[in-house]
Amino acid sequence: MNEHESIRELLALAVAGALDEGEQRMLDKHLASCAACSAELDGWRGLAVSLKRLPTPQAPPMLVERTRSRVAFEMAAVAERRKSQWVMAFLVLFSWTVTLVTWPIVRLLSGGLLS
Ligand SMILES: [Zn+2]
Questions:
Q1: How many A from CA of 30 to the centre of ligand 1?
Q2: Taking the CB of the first residue and of the last residue of the chain, which one, N or C, has fewer CB atoms within 10 A?
C-alpha cells in the first residue's frame, strides 16, 4: 500500500474527527503536498455536510409503541424469572433446613421403635 492509499483510508475518519494526534499530523503533512488527496478530503467533507442536512429518520409511532411494549414485557419476564429463582432457592434452603432439623427427631423415634 503506497502513501496515498494509506492516507485515503484516513480521510473519512478525519472528517468524522476520529483520528488520533499522530494520524492527524501525518495526514496534515501529506495534504500540504498532495492535491489529489486534498481534493478527496474535500469530497468527504461535502458528503459529511450533506449527511448532516438530511432529516433524522423517525420511526413510525406504531413501531415505537410496539417496541416499547415488547421491552416492558421482556423486563417483566426477567423480573419474574429472577423472583422465581429466589423462591426456588428459598424452597431448597427451607427443605434442607426442615430435613436437618427433623432428622434427629425421626432418628430418635425410629431408634426408639426399633430398640
Ligand atoms: Zn496523496
A1: 6
A2: C
Q: Mutual orientation of helices 35-53 and 21-31 as an angle, nearest 10°?
A: 120
Residue 32's Cβ-count burial label (10 Å; 0-12, 13-18, 19+) is exposed
Q: Per residue in 13-53, pLDDT tens?
A: 999 999 999 999 999 999 999 999 999 999 999 999 999 99
19-24 LR contacts (CB < 8 Å, sep 24+) = none
Residue 31 CA to ligand 1 centre (angstroms): 7
23: Cβ–Cβ under 8 A, 6 or more apart, which residues?
10, 13, 14
Question: How remote is the CA of residue 18 from the centroid of ligand 1, in Å?
Answer: 19
Q: pLDDT tens digit string along 92-112?
A: 999 999 999 998 888 888 876
Q: Taking every pair of C-alpha atoms in the chain, what is the biggest distance, in angstroms?
A: 106
Q: Give the global pTM.
A: 0.49
Ligand 1 centroid to residue 52 C-alpha, Å: 26
Cα gap 77→75, rounded to integer Å: 5
